[in-house]
């Protein structure tokens, strides 16, 4: 495998999500490189919909080239994906296709009516990532672990939706379900104006409780992972759950700016989680930077 190709995937992950990059940095090779490749392809899928003017491919082109992966050329992601599937033959291709299906939904289905609809979307765009990662993070196929991985992804996507309410409105999307707006007597027009009051806070707190429920399900099988993978999963979950605390500390004003977990807070979480693992395993993770 061309090391430069893997390095380009790693750079995409480092730029796109410092939290994920740090969480998975201590995985042994080739698990670590496989995570970089999966992230890079998912980023290309996401950018093809959210930033089409800057993306190298449309979502349709990505799906076509992925379907013809053996002959796909023109970008480092294609040989990287071929390496991924050759190195981890237990990885199925269906989650990648479902991920693209979920992102395609953003082009036509932009206003959600029920929580069930929202969680179905969260499975497509994020729960599938758990399915992609599972064969990389562990050698056996455990149905309980598959379910947990999907749940963690769903919880993370709910956090994304809460954090990005304002940005998504600018893109013409409203992920907050209409049934929750109606439950708390909060109007769609008030959402457009960015009104933050006790009704909006109550709505967001309910979504927060849903996210935490999915996180609990998502971490239920973490003890069955190899230690390096278990720690990576815990770190990723902790970094994302901490976004909810930042949102709460800001009074649930998700219109004024993006909730960001600071480096010091991440370092504290790292030290706390690393302390539960053997020093020989925890020492693989970079503590600073």
TrEMBL record:
InterPro entries: Isoprenoid_synthase_dom_sf (IPR008949), Squ/phyt_synthse (IPR002060), Squalene/phytoene_synthase_CS (IPR019845), Trans_IPPS_bact-type (IPR044843), Trans_IPPS_HH (IPR033904). One of its GO terms (biological process) is carotenoid biosynthetic process. It holds the Pfam family SQS_PSY. The keyword Mitochondrion does not apply. Pathway: Carotenoid biosynthesis. Keywords: Carotenoid biosynthesis, Transferase. One of its GO terms (molecular function) is geranylgeranyl diphosphate synthase activity. This is Phytoene/squalene synthase family protein. It comes from Paenibacillus spiritus.
């Amino acid at each position: 495998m061309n090391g430069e190709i893997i390095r380009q995937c790693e750079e995409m992950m480092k730029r796109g999500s410092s939290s994920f990059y740090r969480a998975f940095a201590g995985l042994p090779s080739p698990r670590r490189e496989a995570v970089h490749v999966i992230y890079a392809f998912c980023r290309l899928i996401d950018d093809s919909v959210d930033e089409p003017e800057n993306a190298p491919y449309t979502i349709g082109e990505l799906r076509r080239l992925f379907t013809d992966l053996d002959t796909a050329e023109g970008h480092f992601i294609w040989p990287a994906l071929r390496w991924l599937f050759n190195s981890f033959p237990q990885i199925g291709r269906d989650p990648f296709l479902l991920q693209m299906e979920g992102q395609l939904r953003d082009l036509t289905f932009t206003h959600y009516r029920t929580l069930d609809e929202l969680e179905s979307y969260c499975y497509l765009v994020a729960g599938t990532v758990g399915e992609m990662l599972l064969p990389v993070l562990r050698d056996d196929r455990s149905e309980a672990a598959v379910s947990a991985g999907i749940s963690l992804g769903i919880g993370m996507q709910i956090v994304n939706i809460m954090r990005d309410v304002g940005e998504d409105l600018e893109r013409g999307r409203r992920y907050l379900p209409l049934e929750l707006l109606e439950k708390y007597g909060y109007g769609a027009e008030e959402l457009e104006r960015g009104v933050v009051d006790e009704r909006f806070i109550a709505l967001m707190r309910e979504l927060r409780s849903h996210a935490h429920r999915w996180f609990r399900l998502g971490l239920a099988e973490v003890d069955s992972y190899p230690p390096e993978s278990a720690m990576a999963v815990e770190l990723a979950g902790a970094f994302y759950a901490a976004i909810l605390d930042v949102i709460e500390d800001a009074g649930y004003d998700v219109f004024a700016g993006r909730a960001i977990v600071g480096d010091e807070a991440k370092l504290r979480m790292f030290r706390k989680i690393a302390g539960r693992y053997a020093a020989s395993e925890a020492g693989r993770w970079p503590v600073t930077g």
